[in-house]
Amino acid sequence: MAVRAAVAGASGYAGGELLRLLLAHPDVEIGALTGNSNAGQKLGALQPHLLPLADRVLEPTTPEVLAGHDVVFLALPHGQSAAVAERLGPDVLVVDMGADFRLKDAGDWERFYGSPHAGTWPYGLPELPGARAALEGSKRVAVPGCYPTAVSLALFPAYAAALAEPEAVIVAASGTSGAGKAAKPHLLGSEVMGSMSPYGVGGLHRHTPEMMQNLGAVAGEPVSVSFTPTLAPMPRGILATCSAKAKPGVTAEAVRAAYEKAFADEPFVHLLPEGQWPATASVYGSNAVSVQVAYDAAAGRIIAISAIDNLAKGTAGGAVQSMNLALGLDETTGLTTIGVAP
Amino acid sequence: MAVRAAVAGASGYAGGELLRLLLAHPDVEIGALTGNSNAGQKLGALQPHLLPLADRVLEPTTPEVLAGHDVVFLALPHGQSAAVAERLGPDVLVVDMGADFRLKDAGDWERFYGSPHAGTWPYGLPELPGARAALEGSKRVAVPGCYPTAVSLALFPAYAAALAEPEAVIVAASGTSGAGKAAKPHLLGSEVMGSMSPYGVGGLHRHTPEMMQNLGAVAGEPVSVSFTPTLAPMPRGILATCSAKAKPGVTAEAVRAAYEKAFADEPFVHLLPEGQWPATASVYGSNAVSVQVAYDAAAGRIIAISAIDNLAKGTAGGAVQSMNLALGLDETTGLTTIGVAP
Amino acid sequence: MAVRAAVAGASGYAGGELLRLLLAHPDVEIGALTGNSNAGQKLGALQPHLLPLADRVLEPTTPEVLAGHDVVFLALPHGQSAAVAERLGPDVLVVDMGADFRLKDAGDWERFYGSPHAGTWPYGLPELPGARAALEGSKRVAVPGCYPTAVSLALFPAYAAALAEPEAVIVAASGTSGAGKAAKPHLLGSEVMGSMSPYGVGGLHRHTPEMMQNLGAVAGEPVSVSFTPTLAPMPRGILATCSAKAKPGVTAEAVRAAYEKAFADEPFVHLLPEGQWPATASVYGSNAVSVQVAYDAAAGRIIAISAIDNLAKGTAGGAVQSMNLALGLDETTGLTTIGVAP
Amino acid sequence: MAVRAAVAGASGYAGGELLRLLLAHPDVEIGALTGNSNAGQKLGALQPHLLPLADRVLEPTTPEVLAGHDVVFLALPHGQSAAVAERLGPDVLVVDMGADFRLKDAGDWERFYGSPHAGTWPYGLPELPGARAALEGSKRVAVPGCYPTAVSLALFPAYAAALAEPEAVIVAASGTSGAGKAAKPHLLGSEVMGSMSPYGVGGLHRHTPEMMQNLGAVAGEPVSVSFTPTLAPMPRGILATCSAKAKPGVTAEAVRAAYEKAFADEPFVHLLPEGQWPATASVYGSNAVSVQVAYDAAAGRIIAISAIDNLAKGTAGGAVQSMNLALGLDETTGLTTIGVAP
Lengths: 342, 342, 342, 342
Fold this sequence. Notes:
4 copies of one chain form a homotetramer.
Chain A: E1 3-8, H1 13-23, E2 28-35, H2 43-46, E3 59-60, H3 63-66, E4 71-74, H4 81-85, E5 93-96, H5 106-113, H6 131-135, E6 140-142, H7 146-160, E7 164-174, H8 189-192, E8 197-198, H9 208-219, E9 224-231, E10 238-246, H10 252-263, E11 269-271, E12 289-296, E13 301-308, H11 312-327
Parallel strand pairs in A: 1-2, 1-4, 2-3, 4-5, 5-6, 7-9, 11-12
Antiparallel strand pairs in A: 7-10, 8-9, 10-13, 12-13
Protein name (chains A, B, C, D): N-acetyl-gamma-glutamyl-phosphate reductase
Main location (chains A, B, C, D): cytoplasm
Keywords (chains A, B, C, D): Amino-acid biosynthesis, Arginine biosynthesis, Cytoplasm, NADP, Oxidoreductase
C-alpha cells in the first residue's frame, strides 16, 4: 500500500530535499509537485540532482492540485501554510515545513512574524519528551525549525535532568542552504566562501522563541536563550554550541549519564564516545544527529554540541520521520543515519 | 540470500564510500573490514559518518581474515592487490578498486607503476561497448580509475560513431578526495580552499594509458590523449571537459544522435537536455553520470563534458555496479541516480 | 603631484577591487565614486572591506560628477561605456574596464553583444607584443577581459615563436567573482560550493573573439580557439589550461626558451621553475601571473597554463598597470606580485 | 635607515604571512630566513606566493645565522623560543610569535604546555589598556595568540567600563591556517571543506588562560572564560562571538558608548555602524579588526563579536604593529585596514 504524497513548494531547497528522501521511501508514491513562479517548468531544470523526476512538470499550488493525496507537505514561505491547509480537509495528513504552526504563544508569533497566529500543531521533534505520542496518528504536523532542532536536542537532556540553570547561551553555525534559494547579494558564493558572519544577533532571530518553548517545557520553568546564528561557508549543516551554567553539585559523571539516558533508545541521535566531537560533514545528507557534551569545571558550565544536516534532520528528514509516526509506519522508514563524507 | 562481503582497506576514502553503499545494498551483508596501520581501531573513529558500523573493529589484511566471503573488495594501494588476490581462490568474487588489473599492455603498467604487470581482469565500466558481457558472471573485476570513468563515458560515443579524429584533448577538475586520505601538505584545507591547480601535466598521469586503451578500443585505431588533471576546491566530483576535432562532414545533429543512441538504455548515464550543462553538485553521492555534448562549428571540434562523483560512480559505485553484474543481480541494485544537493 | 581618479561603478566587484588598489597607489587621490541603483548609499555598507572609504557616499553616474578628474575608470555594464566616455573630453584619461572598446572587428562585437560597435581603444595588456608602446601616453585604454588576459599570456609566446599550430584548445576555471555581484540563483553559495560546472560551451563565450584577436595578431595568421569556461568553487582566480599542436620539429627546449625569452623582462609574469605548476592561491590579490609550459611529446602538444587573480591582473590590476603607462608613471607603481596565501 | 629583520621559521604560515607584510614595509630590509627541516630549500617552492623572495634559500635556525639583525622574529613551535632568544643579546629586538612569553602565571604555562616557564615579555596587543606604553622602546615582545586577540578586543571595553559580569562565554570559528602547515589527516581539504567542528572543548584550549589574563587585568577581578573553538571551512579568519551577563542597570546606550570610547582613536579596530555585523571576508589579509556589540535585553547579556584575519592581526600583523612601536616607528607603518574581498 503506497502512500500518495504531494509537495507544495517543490522548487526550493526544503522541497528538493524532501523529494530526495521521498524517492528513497519504500512506502511513498510521489504525486503532485507544485510551485509558484516556477509552475509550468520541468523539475529537471530546477532540481537537476533529482534525475528520476527530471521530466515532471510543476503545477500551481491550488487546492485542486493538492487534492486526492494521503499526505501533503507544505514547503511554503512563512505565513502561507494556514490558507492552504484549511482547504485540504481533516483526513489528509498535512506536514507543514514552515513556521506557521510551531509556536504555542500567539504573541510570540505576532511579534516575530507580524501576522495573525494560525494555531499550534503537534510538534515534529519526536525525541523531545512527550512529542512522539502526540505525533502518532496525528493529521497535522508542524516540522521544527532547523536551529531549534539542533539546539533542543543538544540541551534538553541537561534540563530534563535538572542539571542546568535556565539561561542558555547558544552560538550556531549554519550552511547557506538554510537561507533558502532566493537570490540575495549576501548569499552569493563570492560573498560567503571564505567568510564567517553572524546575523540576527541579540534575540532577533525568529527561532529563539521556539527554542525557549522547547527547553522551557522540559525544564518546567522559563529558560532564557541568548542565540547567535552565524553563516558558515558550506552548503549544508548546523553546528550548535550550547552551554548553560551547571546547577550546584553537578558532576561530569551526572552530565554524561543524563545524556546517555536521554538518547539510549533514539534511532537518530548518536551520543559520541568521550573525546570525539561532532562534525557537520559526518551527518551530511543523513537524518543523524551527532551530540557530545562536556562539563567545564573551571567555568562551571555544561557545554553540549550537536551537528545536524539542516535540510535533512533539520527540515525534510524531520518531516519524513514525523510522517512515519503519523501514518503508523516504522519511524525510521526511508531514513538513514549514514552521512555522505568526505 | 545475502552476499557476504569483505572490504580490505576500509579506513580510506574509497573503502569508506564502498561501505556507505554496501550498507544501503539490500542483498549484501558486511563481513570483515581490514586496515593496515589502523588495524585494531574502531571504525567510528576513522569513518564517523558510518554510524551503523561505528563499533566495528578493523582487522589486519590477511588471507585468513578475508576468507569465507562471497565477495572481497580490495581498496589497497596500487601494486598490492595481486598478492592478496591470488590467495583468495578462484570461486570468490574479487573486485579490485586499485589499478593493478586495468591495463592490457604490460609495458604501460611498468612504465607508469614501476613494478611487474600482474595481469588484466574484466573492466568494470559496463557502459563501454562489450564490457557488460565480460562482467556478467566474472569472478574478477578491475574497477576503472575515476578520471578514465568520466573521460571514457564522455567521449566513447563520438568514437563509436566515427565522428571524431583520434586526438583527444582533456582537462579535468577533481575534488580532493581523489588524492586520498594520506596527509600531505599540498592537500591541506588551507592550501586547496580557494585554489585551482594542475598536476601531472604533459602525459605524466597514470590514468592516461587507461583512457587511451578505452577510447582506442572503441575507435578501432589508436587515440592519442592529452590529459591535464586539475585539483579543485571541493571534496568530491570530477568535471571532465573533453574535445576532439570532428571528422569531415560531421554535423551537430549527428553528434547529438550518437550520444542519444549510446546512452538510451543506460540506467546511470544521463544525457542532459540541450542547453543544460553538467555540474558535479548534481551527482554528489550518486552513481549518476551527467553528460552534455556540443559541436563547435567555428573551431571544428566536438566538446563532450561529463560530471561524476569520483568516489561513487568513479570508484565505489562502479565497484558495486560491477559486483551486481558479476553476481547476476540487477545492475542497479543498491545504487541511486539521485544526488545530494545543494 | 597627485592624480585625481574617479570610479564609475564603485559598488561592484571590479570597482571595489580597483578602489582597493588605488588606495595603495602613492600617486592617486580618489575622487568621485558613482553607482546607479546604489547612489546615495555609503560605501561602507556595500564594500565593507574598504574601511578608509566607509563614509564615502556614492553619487549618480553623470558627466557632471565625473568631470574634473585626471582619470576616470569605467566599471559599467557592457555597452554603457561609450555614452559616458564621449562626454568626458579628450584630455581626460578614460580607462574602460568593460568590453566596449576591446574588439577591432565591428562584426564580432555586434554578434556577441548585439549593439552597435563603439570603436577600438589601445588594449591594456602591456605584455603583448607592441601593446606597451600604444598605451604610453594614451588617453583611452580598453582593459582586457579576465579570461583573455590569462589565455593570451599563457599562449602568445608559443605563437610569437611560431611553435604552435593555429588551433588552440582552452579550458579555464574561474572563481565566482568573475560573474559579478548581481544576485542570480546559480551563483548562490549553496549552488557553487562543492561544484564545478561549465557554461558558454562551444564558442558561445563573449571572450572568445578577444582571444582570437590577440593570438592571431601575434601568430600573423588566424588562430581558431575552442574555449570552455568553467565555474569553480572559489571567490577569485582563473586557471587557464591552454594547448595547441606543436609545429613539426618543435622540442621541449625550444618551447622553454620561447617562454623564458617572452617573460624575461616582464615585472608581473613569472615563468615558474620546471616541475612547479601555477596555483590560483599563489596570486590571490596580486597582479602577478604564474605561467608554466610543457611539451607533451606523446600527444604532440604544447600545454601552457596560467594562473591570475581575475579581479586583480584580470581586471582592476590590469587597469592600474595601464593607467601607469598612460600617465608616464613607472608601470609597477601601486601594484604587487605578492599573493595573499594561504 | 632600513631596519634589518631576520625571520626564524620562514616556511610556515605565520612566517610566510610575516614576510608578506615585511615586503610591504617601507623601513624593513629582509635579512636571514631560517627553517629546520626545510633548510637548504628555496622559498619559492615553499611559499610560492612570495615571488620577490622566490630565490632566497632557507638557512638553519642558529644564533650565527640570526646574528647581525636589528629585529629577529621567532615563528617557532611553542617552547623553542626561549633557547633561541637568550643567544640573541639584549640590544636586538626579539618578537616572539609563539606562546612562550605570553603568560604571567608560571603555573598556567606549565599546566598547558608541560615545560618550565621561560618568563613574561611585554604583550603585543597595543589596544589593551596600558599595553602600548609597555611596547614602546621594548627589546622583547610576546605576540598574542590569534584567539586571544579576537576575544580580548571584543570584550575588554565591556570590562573596562564595568558593564559585564566576570563570566564570559565565547564560541569562536577559525580558518584552518590557524592549525598550521603540518600535514594532519583531520586538516585535509577533503575533511574540512563543507564541515564545521569544535575542538578543545571544556577549558582545554591553550589560549583560555591568556584570555583570562587579559580580561581579568582590565576587569580588576578574575574573569572566568568558557571558550569553545571551532574549525571553519575557510583558510583564514576568526569570528569570535563573545557574551557575558550585563551588570544591573546596564543599558544599550551605555554599552554602545563604552565601545565607541574604547576604539575612538584606534587605527585598526573599527566599531561597525549599528545594524552591520562583522564578516571575516572583510578583513581578509588586513590588520583591521571589525567589532560590533549588542545588548540583548531579553537574555540580559552583552554580545560582542569581532572578526580578524588570524594570520594578519592575529599573528604577523600584530607582530609588525608591535615592532613598529618598539622601534619608535609610526604604529601603522606597512600595515593596512583594507581587506581583500570578495
